[in-house]
Amino acid sequence: MGVITQAVMVQAAIDINGMDHAQKVRLADEIAARPNLLASILVLPRMGVDLEELEVPLHILLVTFQAMKRSGHVWPIVSEDVQDRCMQRLTARARFNEGLPGDLAKQMVQQFCDEHPERYLLAFVYGYLGKHDLLRARTDPEKYLLMAALNLAECIADVGAKTSA
To answer: What's this model's pTM, rounded to 2 decimal places?
Structure first.
């Protein structure tokens, strides 16, 4: 089981939704101490993601970071190596699922979600992306945004599992 509980995830989302712009900027300043997490989102405009769409992964990052703080867990820095390793796993999983029949692909995705170390974080990420109609990745920029957001959850699960074990 993960470090981020359902209650922590819900409260983190409530916290961020209740923040004004200045509070979000202060939280972003805290995130800047973990530059790889922020950089993985801020690079997206170079990949064609427009500023309006960029608000989605930024919101996911803010909620994720708030959940990390609320968990009471001591979180290590997510290194570039962790990000690369998690992205490789995520990409391999996506490629594998692409070749499966529809029902089997859905079953594999469901199994992945059920067994994910940070399943409440992952559920939030999928839910928020779905709310903004970004799960289908119709364009390359949407694909980059989707993968960056999902990789954020993968990285948090990776470092959380190592320090809670």
So the answer is: 0.90
